[in-house]
Amino acid sequence: MPSAESNPVPPVAGRPSFRANDSAPSLDSVTTIRPDGSRPFLFPAATRGRLTTARRIVALVLLVFYMSLPWIPVNGHPAVLLDLVERRFHLFGLTFAAQDMWLLFFVLTGLGFSLIFVTALFGRIWCGWACPQTVFLEHVFRPIERLIEGDAFARRQLDEAPKSWRRFRIRALKHAAYVVVAAFFTHLYLAYFVSVPEVWHMVSNAPGEHWGVFVFMAAYTGLTYFIFAWFREQVCIVICPYGRIQSALTDDHTLVIGYDQRRGEPRGRAGTPGAGDCVACSRCVQVCPTGIDIRHGLQLECVGCTACIDACDDVMRRTGRAPGLIRYDSQRGLAKERTRWIRPRTIVYFILLLAGASVAGWAVSTIKPANFGVTRMTGAPYIIDAVSVRNQFLVRIVNKRHEPRRFRVAVERAPEGLVRSGVAEPVEVPALGEVVRPLILQQERARYAGVFFVLVTVADETGSFSLRREVEFLGPEARLLREEKEEARRAHR
Ligand code: SF4
Ligand code: SF4
Question: Of the N and C termini of the chain, which has fewer Cβ atoms inside 10 Å?
């Protein structure tokens, strides 16, 4: 009777995704590295089924979302415009200045904790369904390849065929299409930074008028082409850090794509007495974009793309068996044990997620339509003469709105006798502009009693909000002034 050991994965029958001289995938090595270090190029077969359809719909929605963001105006700006030159970042109607970049830390931390929590529950659902690498490869570049070169079998045959004019023509057409698509998405990407009309303006003019951008675009198009035409699954297997930390984030209760060994083994052709449900057709291997055999168990190379589920379900249906031999389940579930969704790991991750989301929410809620800062002028920290002690500051007001605004600058908590000059009221700041004004604080020498703090406030003239900064008024130690005064009195006597 065949067993998992005595019946290793058979050579891929009919339409293999590997070259003829490649061995079947095993756990002993990375599937896309041969013993001699070279890389076998994969030719995964296409799948059909409910999960493939669902993933296609999700990918379409994500692609439309990605492509439409630079076109949709919100508050007079594209929904997403990262204006690096002006240091203004417009996100869904909110405008962030360079001074707001500290928020990014909290937002990224919140997103990171969300991903960790989702991974602990649902494994690599992000990789299989929403990661841009998967979306672009599986739903843009791979379909182009199928359209031009044919199915997996035809692609492999073309790859192994001797050089010919026909092979050159097909390959040239495919790579030309790749370059055009890569250039299209790169220009769209540029629109996130300079807006669509500006991209159009650049495209309509000679490259010599914007050499820097042109070289960047050419390089980025080349990188995109390289990744999707050749490097492909290597991004997930070799480069992506998220894939590398999977084993630390998941456990036996995490939902993964797995093979039901109890039901499938021992493998054998339909009708073989005593054989399990796996008919050893290798269809699950043929469709795998990372070339692994899911029947060996959970592997780091599995990007959770669901292709093997649909492929196997199709085989099960054709052979009159129930689908689900390969399915979404936890390792426990596959072993017919109970899957626990609430466990210490998910509780801790959830608390971290809540903390991260709360802090990110708070950070975003503190954003005001203006920023301001008070800095001491360069040079001596204070100036002292016979009658006064003086501190000189610069007040920098940044208007993040799309129309000019007037701001009032005030000094609060000032001790008696403090005189302010410099910045005149109100300060008019142009739309998305910034203004720097001097602020001079002067205290009578006779009333000066040592270092103190004052509050500088900047308020929108309409009274809709105000911002405040505490600044330190510096001067000599009060004791020194008293001693000096005493000495002068003695000298006078
Ligand atoms: S597709 Fe299903 S039946 Fe065919 S080899 Fe894979 S697990 Fe076995
Ligand atoms: S094992 Fe299945 S889910 Fe994992 S990458 Fe291969 S085809 Fe996709």
Answer: C
**Ligand 1 atom having least distance to the Cα of 283:** 1
**What's at 469, amino acid-wise?**
R
Decide: 481 in ligand 2 pocket, CB within 6 A: no
| Cβ–Cβ under 8 Å, residues 37 and 177 | no
Question: Token pair for residue 178?
Answer: 């790749």
Q: Would the pTM count as exceeding 0.70?
A: yes
- Report the topology of domain 370-492: Immunoglobulin-like (2.60.40)
For residue 288 and ligand 2, the question of a CB distance below 6 A is answered with: yes
Return the ligand number nearest the Cα of 283: 1
Confidence of residue 162 (pLDDT cuts 50, 70, 90): very high
Q: Ligand 2 within 6 A of 257 CB?
A: yes
Interval 223-256: pLDDT, tens: 999 999 999 999 998 899 888 888 888 999 999 9
Does any ligand 1 atom lie closer than 6 A to the CB of residue 321?
Answer: no
- Alpha carbon distance 278, 272 (integer Å): 11
Measured in Å, residue 436 CA sits from the centre of ligand 2 at: 58
Please name which ligand lies nearest the alpha carbon of 280: 1
Contacts of 480 by beta carbon, 8 Å cutoff, 6+ apart:
none
Coil, strand or helix at 393? strand
Tell me, using a 6 A CB cutoff, whether residue 285 lines ligand 2: no
Tell whether ligand 1 has an atom less than 6 A from the beta carbon of residue 325: yes
Helix runs in 139-240, H state only: 142-149, 152-160, 165-194, 196-204, 211-226, 234
Probe residue for ligand 1, chosen from 260, 287, 295 as the CB with the greatest number of ligand atoms within 8 Å: 295
The response to whether residue 194 sits with its C-beta less than 6 Å from ligand 2 reads no
CB 345 within 8 A of CB 272: no
CA distance 448 to 442: 10
- Residue bearing the CA closest to ligand 2, atom 5: 302
In tens, the pLDDT along 439-489 reads 999 998 888 888 999 999 999 888 777 889 999 999 888 777 777 777 877
Give CA separation, 326 vs 232, 383, 449, in Å: 24, 79, 80
pLDDT at 30 (0 to 100): 67
Could you tell me if the CB of 290 is within 6 A of ligand 2? yes
Whether the pLDDT of residue 216 is over 50: the answer is yes
Ligand 1 mean position, distance from CA 41 (Å): 22
Which segment of 11-15, 25-29, 72-76, 348-352 scores lowest on mean pLDDT? 11-15
For the segment 283-296, the average pLDDT, to the nearest whole number, is: 94
Determine the residue type at 99. Answer: Q
Mean per-residue pLDDT of the chain = 87
Comparing 490 with 255, the larger pLDDT belongs to: 255
Listed in sequence order, the residues at least 6 apart from 350 whose beta carbon sits closer than 8 Å to its beta carbon are 117
